[in-house]
Amino acid sequence: MQLINRFAEKLGVHCLSLHRARPEILQVNVGKLCNLTCVHCHVNAGPKRKEIMTRDTIDRIIDWLARTDIPTVDLTGGAPEMIPDFRYFIMQISALQLRRHVIDRCNLTILLEPGYEHLSEFLASNRVEIIASMPCYTAENVNAQRGEGVFEGSIAALQLLNSLGYGIDPHLPLHLVYNPVGAFLPSSQDELEADYKRELKKHFGIVFNKLYALSNLPIGRFAGHLRHNGKLEEYMELLIHAFNPATISGLMCRNTISVGWRGEVYDCDFNQQLGMQWSNNGRSKLFLWDIDPDSLEGRDIMTGDHCFGCTAGAGSSCGGAITSMS
Ligand code: SF4
Ligand code: SF4
Hints:
Elements: H1 6-13, E1 25-29, H2 55-66, E2 72-76, H3 86-94, E3 101-106, H4 119-125, E4 129-133, H5 139-146, H6 150-163, E5 174-178, H7 189-204, E6 211-213, H8 220-228, H9 232-241, E7 256-259, E8 265-266, H10 269-273, H11 308-311
Parallel strand pairs: 1-2, 1-7, 2-3, 3-4, 4-5, 5-6
Antiparallel strand pairs: 7-8
Helix pairs in contact: 2-3
Bound molecules: iron/sulfur cluster (2 copies).
C-alpha cells in the first residue's frame, strides 16, 4: 500500500498545485476487451476481458454530453471498436445538435480482424480522427512489445487508412503514438516524428499527420513486467529524477474527464486503472451523470506516484509531449 504520495510532495517543493481547468475532452474508456495483449498495456486489456460498456450506459453518457458544450469525445479501451455498440455510440454523438469531434484510439490490427471489414470506411465516413499505437517503425520492436505479426498487421492497416484519405485529407487526421519499448523515457518527439515519417514513407509508402511520444506509466501490466524483472523502483527513480515543473499546466487531467465502462468518473485513464474514482467528499462514488460540468474548474486532481510518468522530461499526455524539451 502506498503511504506517501511522493508526487504531491514534489509539487509542494516546487510551490505548485494541480487543479482542473474547464473540461474540453470527454475521454470514454468503453472497456478492457482487446484483440492484443501488449507488454506495456496499462489497462491489462486482452481478448478474455469481459468489461464492456452497455448501450444503457452509452445512452446516459450521450444525454449528459448533450447538456454540455464539451467539443471532443475521445474513445479508448481496450480496443474500443470491439464493444458491440461502438458504431451506435459514434452515430449518437454525430446526431447531437452541437457537432463534436470524435477520436478513436485504435490499435490498427483490429481494422483487419474478421467481422471488422468495413470499420475503417465507417470511421472515415463519420470523420473520426484516428490516434493509432505504433511503438516503432521496425518489425522487431513492435512485435516484441505487442506480439508476433502485429507490425505487419499495423502496416497493412495504415495502408488501408491512407487509401481512404486518412493522413491526407484534412478532415481525416491520422496520428501515431510512440511509446518506449522498455524502461526509459521517449527521446525528442520532433526527431522521432521525422524518423517515423521518413522510414514509413520509404519502406511502405505510408503517410500520417503527427507523432505523439508517450511515456510508459508504471501501472498495470507494465508495472508487473518491471516488478518481475526487478526494475520497478529503478524506473520510478528515473521518472522522479526527470520531473519537469513546466509540464504541470499542460497535463491532460486538467481539461479531460475520464469515464469508465460503467460510467464512473476519474481524473484520467491512469487513475481509472488504479480505481481512483471521484467521490462525494468520500461519501459516495460519482458517475458522469452525477457531475455538473460547470462546477469542475478549480477541482483538486487526485494524484499518486504514477503521476511522475506524465511529468518526466518533456512530459506525456494523450496528445504526446507537453513541452518541447527532450
Ligand atoms: S496497449 Fe492497447 S492494443 Fe495493447 S493490449 Fe492494451 S489496449 Fe490492447
Ligand atoms: S497520471 Fe498524469 S494525467 Fe493522471 S492525474 Fe496523474 S498527472 Fe494527471
